[in-house]
Specification:
two-stranded antiparallel sheet; mainly alpha; 76% helix; 16 helices
Length: 358
């Protein structure tokens, strides 16, 4: 890692401060940028995320996707954590903190909206940023793409019923514009560009090793753009919500505490399961990251639709956005330093899986 990358957490902290300051110094500019959205998907942030996602999409090798089913462990862990554990632990933490621990410090009758916001975050696994976290942990781009795609398909059918079950609300309307636009913007477009780029990079290669080297050289050259995109995204996200942070710091802190516990707890469950099941690190790290991060655009859109733009539930989903980047960067740091806990490869042997030790 370069010196700049080693101090990435410092640059992110400075980007957070810069974002909040920008919201105060130039609110007009921030408001214009914030208004460039459709279905709660901000196009400026979308383009920046596209720059972050693109390097990993170049690494996707479609010829290897057909063999993903031979390594099902990462998919099993992802699906169990995302759909059978995460939404329910998020609801439980919401009840514990806002019905019990923080009950004396919040307005009477508002606990339900705090809990609702947490449930909406918990029921929406990440679609876009997980590609960034996977790339930073040197995850398998092919496997990550399959994991995210499978979660997106399940989300289409399971999100509304799951939220309705946990919230006790029957008239959940899935914001299809948000869901479809996000998938197109964060998956389809960068993946298509990545495929075309990879084909051009590997056109003159004589073997797989030369092709891999050409792809690696290219992604190494554009990696600075990915980091710049991440920092610019942090500036904008905190710029959009700077007023909220300054006006309600204690409320933000109360919301952030259970979200932090949830994030680190879910990561620990998925990461430990992957370690115990001897899943390779390049699959284990993204596997744990998907459940830890959230599809915040979807959560924000549903919160606004159900409870209103200025509701506490919408505020909770926004705090989820603010908490996610620093938390995920800390987990990227941890995952990169625990790579030695995991085997190098997981190889199929006559219908069963055998793991080659490091």
């Amino acid at each position: 890692m370069s010196t700049f990358e080693r101090f990435l957490s410092v640059w992110v902290a400075l980007a957070i401060v810069a974002g909040v300051a920008l919201g105060q110094v130039a609110p007009g500019i921030v408001n214009i940028l914030a208004s460039l959205e459709y279905g709660s998907v901000n196009f400026v942030v979308g383009v920046l995320i596209w720059f972050m996602v693109f390097p990993m999409m170049v690494g996707v090798d479609f010829s290897s996707l057909a063999r993903i089913h031979e390594r099902p462990k990462g998919l099993v862990i992802t699906l169990v954590v995302n759909w059978l554990i995460k939404p329910f632990t998020m609801a439980a933490l919401g009840l514990l903190f806002f019905e019990v621990i923080f009950a004396p410090f919040i307005e009477p009758g508002t606990a339900g909206q705090y809990i609702a916001g947490m449930i909406l975050l918990g029921a929406a696994p990440c679609t876009a940023m997980v590609f960034v976290w996977s790339h930073l942990t040197r995850g398998d781009p092919n496997y990550t793409l399959v994991q995210v795609s499978l979660n997106d398909v399940i989300m289409i059918f399971a999100f509304a019923p799951l939220v309705a079950l946990l919230l006790g609300v029957t008239d959940i309307t899935v914001p299809w514009a948000t869901l479809i636009l996000s998938v197109i913007l964060y998956v389809v477009i960068p993946l298509s560009a990545g495929i075309v780029t990879r084909m051009r990079l590997t056109r003159g290669a004589h073997n797989d090793a030369e092709a891999a080297a050409a792809v690696e050289r290219f992604t190494g050259q554009i990696k600075p753009l990915s980091v710049i995109g991440l920092l610019a995204t942090v500036v904008l996200l905190f710029g959009f919500q700077g007023e909220v942070i300054l006006n309600q710091p204690l409320v933000i802190l109360m919301i952030a505490i259970p979200l932090l516990i949830q994030s680190y707890g879910i990561f620990a469950i998925a990461y430990w399961a992957a370690k115990a099941w001897r899943v390779p690190h390049k699959v284990a790290a993204p596997c744990a990251m998907i459940g830890t991060s959230n599809f915040f655009e979807l959560a924000v859109a549903v919160a606004i639709g159900l409870f209103g733009l200025s509701s506490i539930a919408a505020l909770v989903t926004v705090v989820g956005v603010l908490v996610e980047v620093p938390v995920m960067l800390s987990l990227v740091w941890f995952a990169n330093r625990t790579r030695h806990w995991f085997p190098n490869e997981e190889t199929p042997v006559r219908g069963r899986l055998a793991t080659r030790q490091t």
